[in-house]
Amino acid sequence: MSRRILTIALAIVVAMIGVVIVLIYVKGADQRAIAGQQAVTVLVATQQVPAGTTAGTALSEGLISAEREPAHSVPSDALASITPALRGLVFSSTLPSGQLLLRPILVTAVQAATGLPIPSGKVAVAIQMCVQKAVAGYIQAGSQIAIFNTFYKAPAGSVTASCAGDTFSKGATSIHTRLVLNDVQVLAVGQAGAGGSQATATGAFSQSSSTASQTTVMVTVAVDQQDAERLIELAEAYLPYMALETSASDTAPDVVFKP
Prior knowledge:
Blueprint: H1 2-37, E1 39-45, H2 55-60, E2 64-70, E3 90-91, E4 106-107, H3 109-114, E5 123-130, E6 144-153, E7 159-162, E8 165-168, E9 173-194, E10 205-207, E11 215-223, H4 225-237, E12 239-245
Parallel strand pairs: 7-10
Antiparallel strand pairs: 1-2, 3-4, 5-11, 6-9, 6-12, 7-8, 9-11
């Protein structure tokens, strides 16, 4: 008899726990549904906003205005207001009437004109790199990289470079690799295609044109004038190699390289 009573009691307890769990879930679901239905403020184009218009002008001329929209229908990058930091940015493309204003469409005037976010005081330089020398394709726009170079002393024709590998012969000596540039900002990375003709340089260094089966990438970086000169010379006459950096990489150039 006591065993039967205990079984019934346990069943009642389990049932009550189940009811509590269901009630908690339903309450949470209701709260999520209510949150999704809450209205949030967003900026919407009241008429077509031409590319190149500053955000401040679009706001002052009534080209965009604030509206209330259901939270569940608003993208996470939709803007609710034009802050002072955004007023000077321009529309990178035309915003049709009735469209939400999303943060990515606002860029600097330089970026709108060039297609690249080139920092003040710097220039954009692109160099073609073999994939394995560009961190196997892991470099992307926004990456910070370090650029190494292999230096050597050699008579004419002693060093040949290709995506298949570099060869040192005919008396090449003093071969050593050093870090030349660090904290270099990557602006863009694009596929350069397979192979392609490569000019043969005079002096000790030459580039093999037999790279038809090797994939290369174009890495575009932002550098000042002096570093641009270094980078271009490295790309034309030396053996550059790239490495990804983080804020904890603790790198520093260990060679003075003057073009």
